[in-house]
Write a structure and sequence with these properties.
Helix content: 10-25%
């Protein structure tokens, strides 16, 4: 019994120790291991299928969900099928449709009839694993072929030997691949002569007698074979009679998928046998093995289509006297292809994630997202970013599963899937974070949010005092204090928030440890949100704070869109618009703004409209415009209307056709070719061209008209050896436009011969390079034979390895992609419709790889002048009609015409053209050149928004023409390619919440700068759309930003804008605002003098009662002391005036003689007097040496280069009292003196309207003793200018000073106080009685110009007879005319009494004694 008890006790002890260990082990496993991603994808997906009625059809599909051999417990996928978006209900007894074990869908017998098509449609395979999720395959189209029907059948036809014929066989388009031909009931073997066209028709080219017989078309492999009627093809002998060129089959526009093969049909009949060639754009199509092949006498077969093969293809057929042409456009589509597939993601709840998906294709694919087989509908939490990426905000557990990116376009569709696994919070996210996470989300994956496997200590308590420090319409800034019990260092925080009424909570983490603020962006206006904050330490998540409820602000109410916007074109240059009042005006609509833009351009223009209609004038003719309207109320612009398009009416062309050329075909016909007028001068759709021609100098004209797209016309029925002149004009529905200049050509005396092959070319030259050989040649010496082109053969050791055909006008060719140091044999043969002529041979050894050659050397520079049979002694004529057509911001196309070609228009030597160009910038006059053999050249690599000048010359052999007349073109603007530079930020004086941003324009503006955008934020890492925007209109280089937060670091970026868009942003510049407001507001309010915040420098001048500079007087100051000082000052002032007046009165007896003497001096030595004036200065009795000051304005002048020197005041309207109390005190002081001296009751200034206009050249005489400072600069106007500019005597805004300073001996003023906002603007630099002017900055803010700042200057007499002088001054002021602008220099106002220098010196001495006595009294 004891032994059993011992065993039981031992078992209990083992369980006691094992249980905690197991629990810890499980907990550790749970905290450290993340569930792996499941291997779940489609190994086989369905593809488009063509089925036949009654036959079986199979759609393949197979899903991979793990290897059963290695993972026998892996769950297997359940496969279902959707048809047209709906699940198929496959009943067990449905024997016709069933799902095979691998997941494929088998339809045993396809049902299809006219009214019942249950099997045709779009199918999709859907695979599901219950414990994981669902994925869907790409979609596939099942098409059921109809019964064979022949819409046209072969008909009996005859064909001449060597000619071509077409036998029709039009069947259902889906059955064309199943059609084939039989001859005499035997299968017909197709070849390069016998070709089946894409519509099923059969082409028989270069017919022989063996081609005769009975033909029929049949469709098989689609049930019972269906045959057409039989048709007899008869072969006729060739009679040799000329037959007109005619298209039997023309190419049609076609669309194909990349990788497919294509046959462009072109079948031509006529005699002699036509020469057929193909052009793509303006390039000749050359045959190449495995890519391009001419079959069936002229049809073009293209293998393995690529995107580069797309374009407009032209089939051109020539015989001796006729050319015909047919065009068709080839469009190549590219199925969607993934550039970046979505990746699997681990995440925690409340996090934000983003699945990335980048696709390409042509046309551009559309992307949609699917979650577990169901389409994702965009919402506040599921957002499509950048058109392709899926962002999921605030994850919840139900978001787990498989997400698929489905891309689709007209060429096909495809899908890619990724799995989202949401881990528990105690399970750490794998490190490093998956690349699919956005950068913001990655930053938010903090250690706290990743979970902690084994907490070893206490976690933080709840953060305290969570408040919303900033609330806007779309963002909220939260701040808080650290927890009372942090239980660790380096705390990080997570903010959880959700919109009221939703359970999906989102998370946002702080960016660095210890940060206790965060800004939540992208919120909804006028909405309520809940916020809570949780702290993290090394042990994990702490307690949550209390929930904070905050509502965002509502947005400003602006007008809605104006309904019923209509546009009607009334003339070729105007459009009339009308609209209705917005349904939601949100107040009175103040005005409307019409925005319009030419289609295809990026420059939108606008114009104000005050009513509900407006007529746009000055538009381009026959041009499509996009127009919208925006209503404005007191809050600003409202919601824009949708864009509507309207095309102005057409008109006759305003320019003639371009590049008119005439080419003699034979003795009776001339080919006329041209290009359409410039696009901007067509003024409508060109409906045709009129060709007028006349013989010799006759005045009678003949005319022919062509269709709108035909750019050539063969004029036949002409006389042999006769000169004709031609001109062409374009036609629209409105009539004919201007015609070209007359162009002359002379028909041949006899026709060229094509009865035999051409002769051997007269010369062949080769120039070997490293990887190429340049070949040049001259035509056969016998010019009477027709040459259709040249055949070049080349190869190593043999000329038959490769063959190239070139046009008959070409005289050189560069053979590329050759091997270095290899011996090549080259042959050249001329050919025509009869065949190829005798070849000429040449050999060359390519240069070794180490032998470099200048890549800029032109091909023509590698040869000497080619030999010509007979040199042309006539001088070369320069090209004419040079035009520069601007195509883009870096490309201009130069075109011209050449009148120096010989009469037969056949080039018999190596003729080429040299184009040269340069910019209009004087510092960059280097010319650039390029050579070409065409009548046009594309100049690329130009600078945007730059004027270029072009000219052309022609070179033939060793002779060249002179340069042609020049043509000019200015490249288009493009967005700035560099950012604004030298960005600086400074604080505004006395306004710590206001800063001034300065910058310089971008070095590469690429156009006229129309404005700037300033971005600023407190978070340098914030998204661009979260920064605050300040627009700056025009080319201003400075801007003020107000109402900033104190003691806060702001970051600034600037972006330049021109008519094409925005340039790059500048680097961020940071600036920290001051901590506190300025404490010197009282001084600023009293004196209006800007003082730098925190400066210890006291003001230089102080008002009455100021304690600065006065020993013995405290800062508080007793009122009776101030009264005593004022009384003493007034008494001393009165004594001085009386003494000076009495002294001067004794001098009046000799005033007449002194005036004569002064007049003599003024007339004979005025310059000498002015030169010595600086040594003799009259006493400064009334003009105070006090500091003038600019009136504080909202935006202080910034130190930027856009400054203007403005005399103050400029106009009578600009003079406004800055400080009424000071102005009134000055007026009272001046008036009291006038009352005491001359007892004059009136002190009011003259009214401005009573003054006549002022003449700029008006000058007052300078009497003896008048003073004019010779040191004044040109930008400092004299007193007369100031008086003239105002309607009243100028007044100065003066800081009150000690009253006795007004009587001091004139001396240089104290150091001038300079505001940091005005570093280069000294207010006063003159001494003595000179008159002051001030430099001001005229600064515009958003197209608003501030008026000049007011300055008032006290006026006072300088003569003993004070009352008389005042009356004279008033009379002078009344007589002075008013003006709105000042001359650079003008004479001061003349005073009626003047004095000699010795008299003034004596007065100065007396005044010095008086001043000493007064100072002694004052200090006592």
């Amino acid at each position: 019994m004891a032994e059993r008890g011992a065993r039981l006790l031992l078992s209990l002890l083992c369980l006691t120790f094992l249980y905690p260990a197991t629990t810890v082990s499980r907990h550790a496993e749970k905290g450290t291991a993340a569930r792996p991603f499941s291997p779940f994808w489609f190994s086989v997906e369905p593809w488009d299928t063509l089925a036949v009625r009654g036959a079986p059809a199979l759609l393949n599909c197979s899903a991979h969900s793990g290897d059963p051999a290695s993972e026998p417990t892996a769950p297997q996928a359940r496969v279902e099928w959707k048809k047209d978006g709906t699940f198929l209900s496959l009943a067990p007894d449905d024997g016709r449709r069933r799902v095979l074990p691998d997941g494929s869908l088998l339809i045993s017998s396809v049902v299809h009839s006219k009214h019942n098509k249950p099997d045709e449609g779009t199918y999709q395979c859907v695979a599901t694993i219950d414990s994981l999720g669902t994925i869907a395959s790409r979609t596939a189209r099942l098409t059921v072929a109809g019964m064979p029907r022949f819409s046209s059948q072969p008909a009996a036809a005859s064909i001449r030997l060597g000619d071509s014929q077409v036998l029709a066989c039009d069947v259902n388009p889906d059955l064309v691949p199943l059609a084939r031909w039989e001859r005499e009931r035997e299968p017909l073997e197709l070849s390069s002569r016998l070709v089946q066209l894409p519509n099923g028709a059969l082409v028989v080219s270069n017919a022989s007698e063996a081609d005769a017989g009975l033909y029929r078309c049949m469709v098989e492999n689609a049930g019972p074979a269906k045959t057409s009627e039989e048709a007899q093809l008869t072969i006729l002998p060739e009679t040799g009679e000329e037959r007109e060129l005619e298209f039997l089959v023309e190419p049609l526009p076609v669309t194909k998928v990349v990788g497919a093969s294509l046959l462009l049909p072109c079948v031509v009949t006529g005699y002699p046998a036509p020469y057929v060639r193909w052009m793509v754009g303006d390039k000749l199509v050359e045959e190449s093995e495995g890519k391009l092949e001419l079959v069936g006498g002229g049809s073009l077969l293209i293998y393995n289509l690529t995107e580069e093969d797309a374009g407009v293809y032209s089939c051109m057929a020539d015989i001796t006297n006729n050319t015909i042409e047919a065009k068709a456009e080839l469009t190549v589509q590219v199925p969607p292809e993934f550039l970046k597939r979505p990746a699997n993601i681990y995440a925690h709840e409340s996090m934000d994630i983003m699945f990335q998906c980048e696709v390409t294709g042509s046309p551009a694919p559309t992307v949609k997202w699917v979650k577990n087989g169901d389409a994702v509908i965009p919402s506040d939490y599921f957002k499509i970013i950048n058109e392709h990426n899926l962002q999921v905000l605030g994850l919840v557990k139900s978001d787990e599963g498989f997400y698929q990116c489905l891309a689709e376009n007209d060429a096909g569709n495809m899908q890619s899937s990724a799995q989202l696994i949401i881990l528990e919070h105690d399970v750490a996210l794998p490190t490093p974070p998956p690349p699919s996470l956005t950068p913001d989300t990655t930053d938010h994956v903090t250690p706290g949010s990743r979970g902690v496997a084994n907490p070893t200590g206490p976690t933080p308590s709840a953060p305290r005092d969570v408040v919303a420090s900033l609330v806007s319409t779309r963002f909220i800034k939260l701040t808080w204090r650290p927890p009372a019990e942090p239980n660790g260092e380096d705390l990080t925080y997570s903010v959880y928030f959700n919109q009221e009424g939703t359970n999906r909570e989102r998370i946002l983490n702080t960016s660095r440890p210890g940060e206790m603020q965060v800004t939540i962006q992208n919120l909804m206006p006028d909405s309520k949100y809940k916020f809570r904050v949780v702290a993290h330490n090394k042990n994990g998540l702490g307690e949550s704070s209390a929930v904070l409820k905050v509502a965002t602000q509502g947005e400003v109410q602006v007008p809605g869109p104006a309904p019923n916007l209509q546009a009607v074109s009334t003339t070729p240059t105007s459009v009339t618009l009308s609209w209705d009042t917005p349904l939601t005006g949100n107040g009175d609509v103040l005005t409307y703004k019409v925005y319009y833009m030419e289609k295809g351009l990026d420059l939108e223009q606008d114009i104000d409209a005050g009513a509900l209609s407006y007529t746009l004038m000055g538009l381009k003719k026959f041009t499509e415009y996009s127009i919208r309207v925006v209503a404005f109320n007191k809050h600003g612009p409202g919601v824009s209307t949708g864009d509507i398009t309207v095309t102005t009416l057409s008109d006759v062309p305003s320019a003639p056709p371009q590049n008119l050329t005439v080419e003699v075909h034979n003795s009776k016909s001339i080919m006329v070719r041209w290009q359409p007028p410039p696009p901007g001068a067509q003024n409508g759709e060109i409906t045709g061209y009129k060709i007028r021609y006349r013989k010799g100098t006759r005045k009678s004209e003949a005319a022919e008209t062509t269709g709108g797209t035909q750019l050539f016309q063969l004029i036949d029925g002409l006389e042999r050896g006769t000169e004709y002149t031609f001109r062409v004009s374009a036609i629209t529905v409105n009539g004919s436009g201007p015609a070209t200049e007359w162009s002359t050509a002379e028909t041949f005396e006899s026709d060229l011969d094509e009865s035999r092959v051409p002769d051997i070319p007269s010369s062949l030259h080769v120039r070997p390079l490293v990887n190429s050989i340049v070949v040049s040649w001259t035509p056969p010496e016998n010019q009477d034979m027709v040459v259709r082109g040249y055949t070049i053969g080349y190869g190593i050791g043999s000329p038959h390895a490769q063959t190239i055909k070139v046009d008959y006008k070409q005289r050189y060719y560069s053979i590329e992609n050759l091997d270095p140091s290899s011996h090549y044999v080259i042959t050249l043969k001329a050919f025509n419709n009869v065949g190829e002529g005798i070849p000429v041979y040449e050999s060359a050894i390519t240069r070794p790889q180490s032998d470099p050659i200048d890549p800029d050397v032109d091909l023509y520079e590698l040869f000497h002048a080619p030999y010509t049979p007979v040199p042309d002694p006539t001088p070369m004529l320069p090209p004419v009609g040079v035009q520069a057509s601007v195509l883009s911001h870096d490309t201009i196309k130069v075109t011209w015409a050449d009148n120096s070609l010989p009469k037969n228009q056949k080039i018999t030597d190596a003729r080429y053209y040299t184009v040269r160009w340069k910019t209009n910038i004087p510092a960059n006059t280097k010319l650039k050149t390029a050579n070409t053999t065409n009548l046009s050249h594309m100049v690329t690599g130009l600078k945007p928004n730059t004027l270029y000048e072009f000219s052309v010359m022609v070179t033939k052999g060793r002779r060249t023409s002179t340069w042609s007349m020049t043509a000019q073109g200015t490249t288009f603007e493009t967005i700035p390619s560099s950012s604004p530079k030298d960005v600086t930020v400074v604080s505004k004086e006395l306004k710590p919440r206001t800063i001034i941003v300065n910058w310089q324009p971008p070095s590469e503006a690429n156009g006229k700068i129309t404005g700037y955008i300033i971005y600023y934020s407190t978070d340098v890492n914030a998204e661009v759309h979260d920064w605050v925007i300040e627009p700056v209109v025009g080319n201003r280089l400075t801007h003020q930003i107000q109402e900033l937060t104190l003691d806060t670091t702001y970051y600034f970026k600037i972006q330049a804008r021109n008519s094409k868009g925005m340039g790059p942003m500048s680097e961020a510049v940071h600036f920290r605002t001051p901590k506190t407001e300025s404490s010197d507001k009282m001084a600023n309010d009293q004196a209006n003098l800007p003082v730098k915040p925190g400066s210890n420098q006291p003001p230089l001048d102080h008002g009455f009662g100021s304690s600065h500079g006065k020993p013995g007087i405290t800062g508080s100051g007793d009122n009776h002391i101030l009264v005593i000082v004022v009384i003493i000052s007034v008494g001393a002032f009165t004594i001085i005036v009386v003494v000076v007046g009495a002294f001067l009165c004794t001098r009046r007896t000799t005033s007449h003689q002194k005036k004569k003497r002064a007049a003599s001096k003024s007339s004979n030595s005025s310059h000498k007097y002015k030169g010595n004036s600086k040594d003799l200065k009259p006493p400064d009795l009334w003009i105070h040496h006090e500091r003038l000051e600019l009136k504080p304005i909202d935006k202080s002048p910034e130190p930027n280069p856009v400054m203007t020197d403005t005399p103050i005041p400029r106009t009578s309207q600009d003079i406004n009292p800055v400080d009424p109390s000071l102005d009134n005190s000055l007026l009272q002081r001046r008036n009291s003196y006038r009352e005491s001296v001359r007892n004059t009751p009136s002190t009011e200034p003259l009214p401005p309207q009573a003054q006549p206009p002022c003449q700029a050249e008006h000058q007052h005489p300078e009497p003896e003793g008048s003073y004019q400072d010779s040191t004044a600069t040109d930008d400092e106007p004299s007193a007369s200018g100031s008086y003239c500019s105002a309607g009243q005597p100028p007044t100065a805004h003066v800081r009150p000073t000690h009253p006795l300073k007004s009587f001091a001996v004139p001396a240089n003023p104290a150091a001038i106080f300079e505001s940091p906002a005005l570093p280069s603007m000294p207010l006063l630099t003159q001494t003595g009685p000179q008159l002051h002017s001030v430099k001001t900055a005229s600064i515009g803010t958003l197209s608003r110009v501030r008026p000049p700042m007011s300055v008032t200057v006290p006026s006072a007499p300088d003569v003993p007879e004070t009352s008389k002088m005042l009356e004279d001054v008033d009379s002078v002021l009344a007589s002075l005319p008013s003006c709105s602008s000042l001359a650079p220099r003008s004479n001061p106002v003349p005073f009626p009494q003047s004095y000699e220098p010795d008299e003034l010196t004596e007065e100065m001495a007396h005044l010095e004694d008086l001043m000493k006595d007064l100072n002694a009294i004052t200090t006592a």
